[in-house]
């Protein structure tokens, strides 16, 4: 377990250091520290960010119960955008028992992606 955590931490730190070198302006660090910026400053910044992210993730994971984590990770939630469903049938616009207005006439209020989804 410790080897896995350390491997992931080193990977996170390396990616964060690369991101700090690529994205944080050198003169911003020089203005903030009052010294000429170098690679050592960027490495320290990346190390600080990855350490804070690791500690924050550990604290966040420790606050959740096992059942809440399991439910969030394994509960099936269909994507309504892909299925085209909008939350179920509309029961407010009934014309008679067992019929609603949509069954008698085609829908004309659909958006272009919905029409393309049904045609294909």
Molecular structure report:
The chain is mainly α and 120 residues long. The two termini are 48 Å apart. It has a two-stranded antiparallel ribbon. The protein is built from 7 helices and 2 strands; from the N terminus they run αααααββαα. α1 packs across α3. The protein has helices at residues 2-23, 26-33, 39-63, 66-74, 80-83, 101-104, 112-119, and strands at 94-96, 99-100. It is elongated and about 55 Å long.
| Global geometry | elongated
- The rounded Rg comes to 27 Å
- The low-confidence runs, each spanning 5 or more residues with pLDDT under 50, are none
Number of DSSP strand runs: 2
How much helicity do the residues have? 55-70%
Per DSSP, the total helix count is: 7
Structural class: mainly alpha
- Average pLDDT, to the nearest integer? 76
Indicate the proportion of strand residues.
under 5%
Instruction: State the end-to-end CA separation.
Output: 48 Å
Order of helices and strands: HHHHHEEHH
Task: Give, in spatial order, the strands making up the sheet with the most strands.
Answer: 1-2
Largest sheet: 2 strands, antiparallel
């Amino acid at each position: 377990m410790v080897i896995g955590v350390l491997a992931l931490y080193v990977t996170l730190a390396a990616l964060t250091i690369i991101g700090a070198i690529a994205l944080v302006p050198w003169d911003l660090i020089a203005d903030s520290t009052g010294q000429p910026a170098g690679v050592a400053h960027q490495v320290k910044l990346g190390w600080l960010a990855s350490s804070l992210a690791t500690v924050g993730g550990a604290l966040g994971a420790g606050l959740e119960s096992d059942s809440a984590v399991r439910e969030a990770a394994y509960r099936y939630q269909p994507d309504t955008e892909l299925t085209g469903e909008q939350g179920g049938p509309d029961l407010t616009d009934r014309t008679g028992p067992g019929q609603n207005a949509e069954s008698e006439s085609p829908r004309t209020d659909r958006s272009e992606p919905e029409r393309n989804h049904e045609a294909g």
